User: Fold these one by one.
Assistant:
Number 1:
Amino acid sequence: MQRGAERRSPLTCGDSSRTPEAITITHTALAHPGCPVVSLALVPRSSATLAVWASAWLAGAAAPDDVLDSLAPWSEAHDVLAADADTGEWTGVPGPGSAPTSVTMMLAALRRLSPRGQARLVLPAPGDVRGLPGPGPFSREATSAGEGILFPEAGFGVVPTDIADGVVRWTVYRVPDPGPVPEYVALTQAEADLREQVRTSASVLTNLGVARHRPGVREEIAARLRSRPTSLWPAGMPPQALRVLQQADEVDAILAAAAGDELGGQQGPTRSGDYGRRQEAEPTGLGDYGALSSSAAEARREALRPIATAVRIARRAAVAEAVRILVSVPT
């Protein structure tokens, strides 16, 4: 294990089965005394997990151990390192060339710099930089990873990456200017748009012939959903936010299925739950191992791009609403 990394066992409060199918199941705190969490749901991104729990902790609605436990589904161990010496000096987090520290130390830095701050989830993609602070190391690395968290009041952001088997590193970047507050997207509107994209995605899959060439695509989508990490969310997590996160995961799995034979074969899971690794597959009539022609692949990407955008918007809106609700609850 990397020095400074913390290993956590998944929480066991509530339903001990913790199956991925148990989406948005709720438990009451009275039923499980001492258990700080009430909602079991699929986790879209590790950054979404930390953004919600860190905000709840800063607001006094969660304990530090709750934050650490929430990260366990993503990796056995997590460590933290500053991106450069200046960031290290600013935050007190070790910089390059030093042994990494723990998430606990990052939380201590966060508390010191922003006692009652809130986290902002960013899910950038090429051509979609909403929520980013502007050009700089954090924006570049968050775009590369497809995720990150800004702590505007604290003046820094973090980006997770896999550095070894079973170890996720959270790299800290100083962000003195977090940029303008992102445009507010009502969760109700994000949910409605996502539902519309669910209908659109079904039509797109049909038009693109995915189901015709891969008759087991429904089972493939279900398997992808089952493979995603599950986590317990803080008490007070709004049910609508959980529902939207679930719907976004479902649409994301459909997108992965639609893209699965672009390079030939099924796409294997990555840490974030998205699919981008080629696996062997049976020929589908689309070319060698189902590979699409370049023109057909581009047409597919163009058709699916607005759906992927809707998924990111919905996830950001759900996490933003969860943070808003959790930090407003009196402690």
Number 2:
Amino acid sequence: MARERRGRAAERQQAERQQRLIYIGAGAVLGIAALLIAAGLFVTRYLPPRAHIVTVEEQSYDARAVVDRGIYLAFFEGGAASIADIARDTVDTILEEEALRRRGPDLVDAVTDADIERELNIDLGLIVEDPDPADGEDGASTASPTPEATATTEPTPEPTVDAQEFADALTGFLRNAGLDRDEYEAIIEARLYRERLREHFTDELGPSGPQIRLQRIRVSTQLAAETVIEDLEGGADFGELADEQSVAEEDGDAGEIGWTVPELQSDDVQAAIADLEAGQWSEPVVAGLFYEVYLVAEVAEDRAYEDAVTLPLVRQELDDWLEASIATLEVDRDLSADEETWINERVLADVTSRLGG
């Protein structure tokens, strides 16, 4: 009996030890779970707003700053191409603006505090930038001033703005924009440099230059493209073939692209038309899922540029300048996938909320 009692006591002690171990183990698991939850909250709620995203020279931007900039872009500058691109496009915009402010003065007149203040007043609707009354709709003067008028004309003084009206308008605007004054003035400064650089590259381009007039036939298969070449060699009219067979809906009648310059075409198209004279057509060019044949319909050694040529050429020059200027800056870009998602979600949520969604 004594042996049995000692055995039962030992079994109870062993069971109690096992129970204590279970409690200790459960407590450890709960503790680890709590730590994981706390860490998750820290990562998703605390770290992202303060997480480093990009630094340009000495200027650093955290995730919260990128969100604020992304919200501004969405409401005032058209926003990103898609929801998935919000963070990346916003960081690209920040880099461009840094390059404009830091490298713009190397090529154009420096933006002054007075320039920024005037632009700020225009943005707030406190002053209006009226066109010259002598100008036509296209901005070109419709009348030549007489010498007397030229001698007596004085610059129109800037309108005065009431200080309290300015303060109230600025406060309301910045509240809606989610930016402080320094941030918004930095945006204005970059905008003014962008405008001055466009004017600079437009002046460099000049009013006219060599151009070609292109027509195009776009078909879906290589066999169809080869058949087009055979038909042309057999004497078929390019325009008629374009009207009958081309699937390039953006082209005009007879496959008309219009007057352009080779620089605005893809590298493959440039290579295909490089040595062509007026009246000659290219070999088929692969363009994505299609095949294209080009006709150089006319060649002009010096023709006035139309906006359809000037604007993309200037844009191309500005884009090249921005890319080269950013490359001269010390940039530390650190946008992780989690941070990108966090930024995209915050910008989308804010925009949706403001729109009443």
Number 3:
Amino acid sequence: MGGEDDQPQPGFDRWVSFRGQGEYLPPTPNYTLNVDGRREKQKGYITDELTDYAVEWMKQQKPAEKPFFIYLSHKAVHANFTPAARHEGKFANKKFVRPATAANTADNYALKPRWLRDQRNSWHGVDFPYHSDLNVDQYYQRYCETLCAVDDSVGRIVAELKKMGVYEDTLILYMGDNGFMFGEHGLIDKRVAYDASIRIPMLMQCPSLFSGGRTVEQAVANIDVGPTIMTAMGLTPPPHMDGLNFLPLARGTSTAWRDNFLYAYYWEKNFPQSPTVFALRGERYKYITYYGLWDLDELYDLQADPGETKNLFYDPAHRKTAQAMEAKLYARMEELGGMAIPLNAPKGGINDKRLRDRGGQTGADFPAPFVVEKPLNQNAK
């Protein structure tokens, strides 16, 4: 559930869940799942076990009499990555090539915010990941190995749909809940506005609704999932629901669509290295700004620079674009009631340490656009 309560939620007539992030394997003999409000012992590897529950429930359905909806949300691939025994070591001999932006070079940090270089040596940076000596290369290998059981799970669900005779008429939506960095920009984890952090995989199929093989280029967001599923069910999304139905995009038909979307992350004391960030991501340009922080804004041409390596915000040739996107971002924030910053009390540990022998006592240089050679105000008295 992502919280401490795993009780059944309204609207579901079958419920299997766990508290918090759950466990890949039961940590104690009496560790339990919540099954329809009852405590049931977790028997084995959680990805396989959740799939067992899902397939068992599917076998009981009679789709010719009543349609069904199943939401199968795996713990995988949440850290700490733990592969199923059958996948352990599968990619141990596969070489992981770190992103070019992982290197601590002057070129990589040219016109980049100070906080970004400082975060290298933090809980969410490659120089001190999770305050440990974690090998990011091996970490990525275990991530891939852990994901293999999710692949198996999808295969089992698809196989059961085919047995039921409803595969061609079933909308299958496969997606992650957040991006994840394995060295991009010197970071790990998520939270920040770079594409490696905010973009997620999304695959969709329903042969009776649309043909396959199409890549949707428009900016689809997770808020669009609910309206899309409801429309596929023949329901009308309620007016208070955010998001848009993207079935027309899947079909390749013309439809009015957004030209950008808003991204927001609010600073957490538990993870003080990541600032409050607001970003507007369009199909071509992305604008990023920070709140409560004396640092650089960012503008990227995602078509020419998908890795977000060259900050164009201070380039005179892109000044009008930067100003226009900045204005659009604040207008969008005003429209959505986002001009007030929430304050949340910290929960859990405060991950605020840096490693001394990797420059832990010094910060990044001050941004060049903010540094001048002589006084600017000649009228101070």
